[in-house]
Structure formats: structure tokens, C-alpha cells
């Protein structure tokens, strides 16, 4: 039953009743997801310091084991980080200690003090958020692409099916069902293209955005260039060159505005389809066993369009 209805003690509907519709995002936007990306950023930075800056060597025989610290990160690891945090009272520091423990276990104790080198917590966090949003954005993009294709399919299929259009809620000039579907496909496609062009951004420049610790220890390194190289090549996100201690996160605002417009178009689709059902233009399929109303069981209510 729990698989159907979700966690019955969940406070929010997306963790409970409607979890089945969004459970793809659990591995990304949960605290578990954040921990995993933090570990990923720390490990990638460790490899970058070794491979690109030649600050130390990593035995090739343990490279896979070190990569697996984040690639095989599981709920047991996440719980262990929470245990460490009970002592540190600092979430990012707990991740650092967790990685050092793992390095001890794979025989890499000699390099463990390079973990988190010159980083402030925000260097790890902002890149983790960027990775999370990039993954989540890709899921939304794929779902949007499928819906656009379906709307285009309906547009072609029903291009010759005439229907009365309505303006101000009143009967107006004729249109076709196909044209109405294509209209929504056209609107969604514009936002879909903007979504795919959108880039997440990350910064790796220390406690005040000036590479102070980096430059003090290794003043022969072009840290602006190397930081950009790390973010671009190792994390596959867009480098943010100028910042304070924190990422300005303007890219998140840009992303949310795209999602707002997508949501508004989807609401328009839902309302129009709801109206077509109300006007008897469309009929809903009856599903055996389902009840549309506690007192009028013969009804089939458009609940999916109302919940969408």
C-alpha cells in the first residue's frame, strides 16, 4: 500500500501521496542528493589538484576506489555523515571527515589532507547545487520533450476535426482541435529551447572570492584560469569568474523564470482540456473500479488536469 500512496506520515504531498509522480527527483534534491554531490565535488577537486596542478600523486591502483567514494555513495554513507556531523556540528566539515575516513580505508592516507584544499564551504555547496539543478533540469527537459511530441501528434491527428472555439467563455468562430493542440506545442517548444540553452554556474575561488589561500600557498599558479578549468572540465558546468564568498545564483532565478512560464502554459492546457470535457467536446475513459464521487460513483472527474 505504501508503494501506492507514499509515506503516510509525510508532511508534504510530494513526499507522500503524490511521490510516485516526482520520485525521480528524490536522489537529486534530497539531503542525500546534496551529500552525494558534495562528495563528488570534493573528490573531483582532489583529482584536479593531482592531475592538473601536479601537487601530489595518486597511485593509479586506487583511482577507481577513490572515484567509487562518490559513484557508489549510498544511504549508509549518508547516515554515517550525519553521525559525524553530531560531533562537528558542521555539514560540509562532516563530508570532509567522511572522505578522509574512506581514503584511509583504500590506502590513500598520505593524500587525505589535500581534501578540501583552499576551499570554503560555499565552494563545495554552490557547485553541488549547480550539479543538482543540472540533473533535475535534464529530467524536466526530457518530460517536456515527450509532451511536446504528444501535442504535435494530436495536432496532426485532429487537424481536420472542427470545433467551436470560445472567447470570453462564449461560442465564437470555428477552429480545429488540431490547431489548438499545436498552439500549446508551439508555446512549450519556445520555453523548452530556452531551458536547454540555460547554463548552471559554479565558482571555486575561496573564502572571499579572491583566491587568497590559494595564492598564498602556490603563488606560481594562475588560479583564475585553473579554477575555470576545473569547473568547466571536471564538473561540466559554466565557471563564474567574479563573485564574493558566495555564488550570486542569478542563474537560478533565470531557470525559475523559465519554469514559471512552462508551468503557466501547462495550466492553460489543463484549463482548456477541463473546459473541453465540460462542454462535451472530449470524453474521459472509464476505468473499472475507480469512483468519481463518494455520492455519485458514475462520475468521471478530470482530477488529473485539476492536480497537474
Automatic annotation (TrEMBL):
Enzyme Commission numbers on file: 4.3.2.2
Protein transport among keywords: no
Name of the top EC class for this enzyme: lyase
Domain Fumarate lyase N-terminal residues, every copy: 16-307
Gene3D superfamilies per the UniProt record, alphabetical: Fumarase/aspartase (Central domain) (1.20.200.10), Fumarase/aspartase (N-terminal domain) (1.10.275.10)
Pfam families (UniProt xref): Lyase_1
Coiled-coil annotated residue ranges, if any: none
PROSITE patterns on file: FUMARATE_LYASES
Protein name: Adenylosuccinate lyase
Organism annotation: Candidatus Mcinerneyibacterium aminivorans
Top-level taxonomy: Bacteria, Candidatus Macinerneyibacteriota, Candidatus Mcinerneyibacteria, Candidatus Mcinerneyibacteriales, Candidatus Mcinerneyibacteriaceae
